[in-house]
Design goal:
GO terms for molecular function: DNA binding. The N and C termini lie far apart (40 Å). The protein has 6 helices and no strands. The protein is mainly alpha-helical.
């Protein structure tokens, strides 16, 4: 599977904004669902993208847009309709 570099780059940016893999994993973890640094490493290094089920949480934590993280799922970023 060939992952577009822009999606991997957006995921890398989110990891950096969160303070690294361990920090992002801690911020994503809940009592019901734990995310380890190893799992996050696997998402980034092996899969190359943030899993779609976690994109909204990653966006909330880091400010990196869901449209950058997974344009294959969320499509292109919509134009700002409030500016019209």
């Amino acid at each position: 599977m060939n992952i577009p570099e822009d999606m991997k780059g957006a995921f890398e940016q989110a990891i950096k904004k969160a303070g690294g893999q361990s920090a992002l994993a801690r911020k994503l973890s809940t009592p019901a669902k734990k995310v380890s640094q190893q799992r996050l490493w696997h998402w980034f290094q092996v899969k190359g993208v943030c899993p779609a089920e976690w994109v909204l949480q990653v966006e909330e934590i880091t400010g990196v847009s869901r449209y950058s993280l997974r344009p294959d799922v969320f499509g292109e970023e919509p134009a700002d309709v409030s500016a019209a």
